[in-house]
Known about the structure:
Layout: E1 2-10, H1 16-38, H2 44-58, H3 65-85, E2 100-102, E3 108-109, E4 115-121, E5 124-129, H4 134-140, E6 146-153, E7 156-164, E8 173-179, E9 183-190, E10 193-200, H5 204-221, H6 226-262, E11 264-269, H7 281-289, H8 292-306, E12 310-313, H9 318-334
Parallel strand pairs: 8-11, 11-12
Antiparallel strand pairs: 1-7, 2-6, 3-4, 4-5, 6-7, 8-9, 9-10
Helix pairs in contact: 1-2, 1-3, 2-3, 5-6, 6-8
Amino acid sequence: xxxxxxxxxxxxxxxxxxxxxxxxxxxxxxxxxxxxxxxxxxxxxxxxxxxxxxxxxxxxxxxxxxxxxxxxxxxxxxxxxxxxxxxxxxxxxxxxxxxxxxxxxxxxxxxxxxxxxxxxxxxxxxxxxxxxxxxxxxxxxxxxxxxxxxxxxxxxxxxxxxxxxxxxxxxxxxxxxxxxxxxxxxxxxxxxxxxxxxxxxxxxxxxxxxxxxxxxxxxxxxxxxxxxxxxxxxxxxxxxxxxxxxxxxxxxxxxxxxxxxxxxxxxxxxxxxxxxxxxxxxxxxxxxxxxxxxxxxxxxxxxxxxxxxxxxxxxxxxxxxxxxxxxxxxxxxxx
Length: 335
């Protein structure tokens, strides 16, 4: 199994050629979406047979970008067709934001200096220097990580790296968690011994509440200036995401380290929320901002890199089972 990491680099450029390339790639994606919808195409091979020759003749870009545009178009259409099957309101999708996606054969990256060359057409290309931090150098300097796809959007470049994950070890115990709004509450069992565990989220709900109040105040203050309101709200949202993810990274890192030391399997709930369920608007907002999916994602990819097995179970009755286990452990300790 391959493990993936995304390396994000903030990069600003003033290059008309690169701006033109991003706009041309967006046009390729939107034209591919219309062709795939018109001919009911769902695979990249069929889309390539139907559209590659025409798009290659009309767009003077590096030819390897055209199959990448097909992949982006089919990914967008997959979500559109899912909404159609569920009879939800939808319209023909199209990409608004400038972007470029290139596979690892299409670009050249010097892993030591951060020099990146992106071809535009023929022998024409543009060179950028990626700002490498110590964390970036630690990953790029590891030869076990291979280069994957490259994504370019205004102001940001994302390089995906990948490597073969180690085989999960044979577990000698288990760490089972019930995911709550403020913490992971669970039990660690190994042999004849067991103990309760609690991993708090380090004030994630408080951070979310602070930024929610700030966004609401900004929205009211700039209600008659949508452009400024969007910019301020986007900035506030980025701050919240960074603060929340940084806290979740600490929790997931500590959990995976604990499981590695104990040679234990991690058991998580397979949580899925369906609809409003008759809940209040305030409760739905709280559940929508509950970062359970991000926390589970971090635990799974860090566990895969460490060779820790992860099991997902039905969440029904997990809270009551955990309370019963806690009472049993308390009685055993007193005895």
